[in-house]
Design a protein that fits this description.
It contains four helices and four strands. 56% of the residues lie in helices and 11% in strands. The protein is mainly α. It has two domains: 1-43 and 114-160; 46-103, no CATH class. A hairpin with a 6-residue loop joins strand 2 and strand 3.
């Protein structure tokens, strides 16, 4: 982990990006509320974030296992180094080096489950306004969490 990047900041940024995409989809839905044949759009990203968190948890477990599992000192015959801790397997090393954040891509999908009006449009203005409000609230919570992370980092830098 470098000084500015942390798991919390990375995940909150991904969440806020997904929520911004959702805001765009909702705005498009509201703009097309009277367009005949328009099918409302939704943005799905929460399951991807949950998967990223699970993969990061596995990385933390592997790191912890390698730093905690003590083995009696053994001298490497070829290098002369003394190993006191478990060495990660090649598969674990590759997994630890992988970037799980690269796989993130919010998905824009058509809502095919909502009923349509006589013109083939399935946008309900009340639902869109409620979704807009919920999305804005979630965004605010994530931005406050990120702000707290940076405030804590700032306090560490200032020595408080």
């Amino acid at each position: 982990m470098d000084l500015i990047t942390s798991r919390t900041i990375n995940i909150t940024q991904l969440g806020m990006n997904g929520l911004m995409e959702r805001q765009h989809a909702i705005a498009s839905n509201i703009a097309n509320v009277m367009t005949p044949g328009f099918q409302r759009k939704e943005v799905a990203f929460e399951s991807q974030l949950a998967e990223i968190i699970e993969k990061e948890d596995l990385k933390d477990y592997i790191k912890g296992k390698n730093s905690i599992d003590y083995k009696p000192p053994m001298m490497d015959v070829f290098t002369g180094e003394v190993h006191k801790y478990r060495t990660p397997t090649l598969q674990e090393q590759a997994y630890l080096k992988s970037n799980v954040y690269d796989q993130y891509k919010p998905q824009l999908v058509n809502d095919v489950y909502s009923g349509t009006d006589r013109h083939g449009n399935n946008v309900e203005l009340e639902r869109e306004m409620m979704d807009l409000s919920k999305t804005g609230t979630k965004f605010m919570v994530l931005s406050n969490l990120e702000r707290r992370q940076f405030t804590g980092l700032s306090e560490v830098i200032r020595g408080q």
